[in-house]
Structures are given as structure tokens and as C-alpha cells.
Amino acid sequence: MFGARQQTSRDIFLHCSLLTADEVLILPVWRIFHNLFRHPLRRFPGPLSHGASRLPIVAQLWRGKLVYHLEVLHARYGPVVRTAPDELSFLDTMAWKDIYGRRVGLTSGVPEIPKWQRFYRVHATKGQTTIMNADTELHTRLRRQLAQGFSERSMREQEGIIGGHVDLLLRRLREGRGTVVNMTTWYIWTTSDIISDLALGSSFGCLENQDWHPWVRQFASSSKEFTYISGLRMLGLDWLVGMILSKILTLTAEALKKRIAQGVERPDLIEELLKNLKSEQSLDFESIHGTARSLILAGSETTASLLCGVTFQLLTNAEALERVKKEVRSAFSSEKEITLLSVNSLSYMLACINEALRLYPPIPSGLPRYTPPGGAVIAGHDVPENTVVYIPPVAMYRTPMHWTDPDSYHPERFLNQPDFANDHLDALQPFSVGPRNCIGMNLAFAETRLILARILFSFDLDLSLDSVNWLKAQDAHFLWRKPALNVTLIPVPIPN
Ligand code: HEM
């Protein structure tokens, strides 16, 4: 009996070692064979190596070069490319609506294509659900409750909070008169202070202290880690992710608890979520906390990138800089006149911002969706179920398929100039489209317009020599890894 048990254990051990060998050798070979010769996506164009395995894409992601790599692949293989065994990348403008623009709910009859959770779970703590990764039902609820905080009316009420931080930024920049300042840092500090004030009820205080808040510093330096985690998930190594996540995520729970304890009405982004905290419809604390953190993650680095991008483009395009300065300085006679509302009349400056979004989209990486049972039709292609699909923004915004002189900065393309009549302006969707598009778009535009107009009104700017190549070959780890953007600011005399 004992012998038989021993025999069984040995059998199991042998079997396990065979299985391991299987996994290491036979399964991958079989899988590669399957991916290349039997997989339903085999008819789509793309490099053999990418059709065989996801490793080449993950390697580019980890190197921070994926956004450029996708540009090269599309230039070589056309508007649809098989970028991994079960993955397609699209450059057709119709794909925006087909991938992201599905309507939720019975009236439309077409459900949304869900987010690819292997990618989206990365930003949550273990098991935590946020607006970014919630299923359709919870997402609809969260979005409805948050929408109020992002309405036109709320933004007018928030002007005091936003304006206060912008005033402080301008004061700090004046203090450094004539010296070289790193605008990357000032912009990140400003947008982080604004969004923390609006999402948590108290500001991180970076501008006040002229120093990094630990959370902001951690996020600014952790985008690379997020990409590593993302890649591990894509390769199916979730257990490793669990170990790493708990180390790099800091919780903002304390600030939120204080905001709840205050109990006051405040025109911020989470007022509506907190009002319902005690009702049956309410979300639990962790979901609110996760969502508040998502707001900060989504709203700080992105808006700072847009500000950096437009500043850099203007400082390297003298004609555009002169024209936008003239527009701003002739529209206002004092800083006080520059408000969230009044900046909307600056049509050339708005075109400059749009063109900066094209050449430097704050979210340069594709946002992956996963086709549901039955598959989907995308840009006229029948795509089978369980396929990862996305639009790669950098490739989309720089392809000659959609843009005249795509690598140069021409704000005029957004002002109906005949030279750019063949441009496909609807290819540019930096805030995405559909039910999961950016809820903070108006806020991002408002902050960017206000800050840019105030800076252009108050300073002459000069790019430092060491920042002339700021944009060239910047790595993208989901978000850009922005180096220092060094600029000299000369205060313009204030008119009497
Ligand atoms: C220039 C700045 C910004 C850009 C380019 C941008 C872009 C985007 C994009 C492309 C998405 C879709 C993400 C996806 O499909 O996974 C998104 C979602 C989101 N953004 Fe923004 N964003 C910006 C600023 C902001 C700001 C200031 C906030 C304010 C809190 C914000 C909050 C959000 C939220 C909460 C979502 C998720 C929406 C949902 O799932 O319903 N974003 N953003």
C-alpha cells in the first residue's frame, strides 16, 4: 500500500516535471505554430514575430519606444496591423467610433466594447474598482454622479479654486525673474495642486511649499513601473504584479477621510459622490477613494503634458509665438481680465493648443479594448471575439494618410486654411470618444487656456539651449517621460 502511494507520488512528480517541460518547450512551440498558421487573425498584415508572440510588443513597451514602433509598423503594413497574436492596431478614422464610441444601454442596441482588463487593472490596488476599470453598470452610475462636478456650472463655481492656484504659479514665476526655470516641474506642481484640491478637498501644496508632495513625486517617477506591470499582466504573470503593486502604490485615503469629516458643501469634483455616502445607492469608501485617486492620476500629468507640449512648440516656432502673443496681449489690458470664460475668445491660441495635442498627445499610448463574444466590425473589418483592439495616437496623429506636412507645427490647420483642406481633423481625438471618453476634457482645456494665456500675457519666454531637443525621442511609458523644459521668463512690464 505504502509502496503504491510512493509510486503515485513519483508518478505525480514525474508528470509535473513533464508538464513543466511541456510548458517551457512544447506549449510555446505549439502556440507559435497556432498563432501563425491557425489563428483567426493570421490574414491581417504585420511582422511574423509579432503574429507569433506578444513578446516583441512588450519589449518595446518596456523600452518606452512602443509609440514610435507602432508608427513604423503602420508606415510599413498599412492602416490595420496585427501587432500581437490576438491584437490589432487601427489608423482608420472610423475606428474611433467603432472601437470606443459604442453607446451603452438598450436604446442603441450595441453594447460598448469592454476595456481590456489586463491593461486597466494595473492602476488599481488589488481588487479595487474605479471609474477607469468599472463594468458598464457601475461605470454608468459613477459617471452620472461625477458628471455634476464637471458641468459648466460647477466649473464656474470652481473658478475661485483653480484661479487661486494659477495666481500662485504666476507669483512664483515672477519671483524667479530672469532666471532659467524648469517649466515641466512648475506645470506638474500646478496641475497636481488644482486636481488634488478638486478631488480630495485639499491641495497637495506643491506651489506653496515649492517642493514635491510625496504622492506627486511618486507618481511622476512611477510611470515606468506601471509599464513594467502592464507588460507582466499582458504576459499573464499576474501573481508577480500583486507583489509589486502593494509596494509602489501610496494611498490618498487620509486626505479623503478629512474631506468627508469636514462634511461641508464645496464645489469640487467629489461633492456629489460624498452626498450619497450614507444612502443605499452609495458607493463604498474604497470605490470613492479609488475614483478620487483616478481623478488625480488622470488629471495631473496629462494636463501638465499639454502645457509642456504647447509651450515647447511655441518656443520652437517663432511665427506662431509672435502671433499668439499678439492675440493675447491685444485681447486683455490687465491680468484680471483673463478668466476661464474670456480665454475662450482666443481662437489662435486654441488652435495652438489643438496642434500641440496632435504632435504631443498627453496620452500617447493606445487604449486597448477587448472584443466581446460574437466579435465586432471595426473600420469595415470583421474582427473575431477576444481580440485586443486600439488606435495608436502617435501613429494616428503623424501619418500622412490624415495630415499635410504631419511632422511640422501648423496651428493654421485648425483654422480652415486652404493649405490643410485635405487634413482629417476628426482623426485627432486626444480625449477619446464614447461613453468612456475623458470626463475632465473641459477642465483640462480650461486650465490649459487660463495658464497659457496668463503666462503669455505676463512674460516673454526663451527656450534654453539644453531644451532644444526636448521632444526628440522622449520615451513613453504609457505617459511621456518628460525631461526638464528649461525656459527663461522675462516679466513684461505691467501696463498702468
Ligand atoms: C490634456 C489633458 C487630458 C487628456 C489628454 C485626457 C485624456 C483622456 C483619455 C484619452 C481618456 C480615455 C481613457 C480610456 O479610454 O482608458 C480619459 C479618461 C478620463 N479622464 Fe482624462 N484627460 C485629460 C485630463 C483630465 C482631467 C483634468 C481630468 C480630471 C479629473 C480627467 C479625468 C478623466 C477620467 C476620470 C477619465 C475616465 C472616464 C471614464 O472612464 O468614464 N482627465 N482622459
Automatic annotation (TrEMBL):
TM regions (residue ranges): 12-33
GO molecular function, one term: oxidoreductase activity, acting on paired donors, with incorporation or reduction of molecular oxygen
InterPro entries: Cyt_P450, Cyt_P450_CS, Cyt_P450_E_grp-I, Cyt_P450_sf, Cytochrome_P450_monoxygenase
Keywords linked to the UniProt accession: Heme, Iron, Membrane, Metal-binding, Monooxygenase, Oxidoreductase, Transmembrane, Transmembrane helix
Pfam families, sorted: p450
Residues given in the record as heme binding sites: C438
Protein name stated in the entry: Cytochrome P450
